[in-house]
Amino acid sequence: MKLSICTISFRHHLHSLDQIAHWAQANSFQGIELWGIHAKNLADEPHYGADWLNAYGLETSMISDYLPLEVSECDLLTETKKLSQLAKHWGTKKIRTFVGKKGSAQTTKRERDKLVEKLHLICEFLYAEGQSVLVETHPNTLADNLASTIQLLEETNHPALRINFDVLHVWESGINPIEAMNQLGPYVSHFHFKNIASRSQLDVFSPNNVYAAAGSRKGMVPLFEGAVSYQDFLEELIPTMDVNASLEWFGPNVKEVLVKDRKQIHAIMESLKVRGN
């Protein structure tokens, strides 16, 4: 398994990317998932990139952004090209995005058809560049439940379309993540791992709250202390595929929580090795 930290976890901290990379290396992570706005803001400092990060023994696992599918095709392609170039500079083939700004049940067929058309356009461009677009499983998007996510894959019908499997949000939709993986597994290229104390507190992850410096963090808990059973999920997942995942922590005590979660995941991996022998 390759584990990454997310630069979004440090969005309200006065840490340089140098400090974050040094810390990630010292604490046995393999990669960094770069928030799109961070990648864009670093574009004027080209010495930061794949070679620089590789010197720490790290790789860029993914650039996580929000491609504007609601704009014209011309404007969308302009943004996609910029993001593609940034991904190349950072040495990753994976670009994460959301599809739509409301739930699948609230999206009309005409709206859905337009979103699929735009998504296919992105796929065509990125495929030619040897890259993929990863649609995240997330509330208030077309990938807010298993059936709609599978439908989206079928409608777009393109090899450049992949899934960023957010375990918590799949669980939030009402399905067991293990069951969802049984169906989505062949399309999954990355995972987001995070947890919540109880289902009643899921609103803490709504964008208006989670990105706000003064937003509530109540209910955000370390990976193995929440309502989603990551022990069960990882024991099922790890033996079946090469896992690339990011610890997506939005709460306080960032470094302490990330190290704790990484160590517990490592312990599960070691336990599975022993059982395998």
From TrEMBL:
UniProt KW keywords: Isomerase
Domain of life: Bacteria
Domain Xylose isomerase-like TIM barrel: 23-260
SUPFAM superfamilies: Xylose isomerase-like (SSF51658)
Pfam family, one: AP_endonuc_2
Source organism of this protein record: Metabacillus endolithicus
Annotated protein name in UniProt: Sugar phosphate isomerase/epimerase family protein
Gene Ontology MF terms in the entry: isomerase activity
Taxonomic lineage from the root: Bacteria, Bacillati, Bacillota, Bacilli, Bacillales
Alphabetical list of InterPro entries matching this protein: IolE/XylAMocC-like, Xyl_isomerase-like_sf, Xyl_isomerase-like_TIM-brl
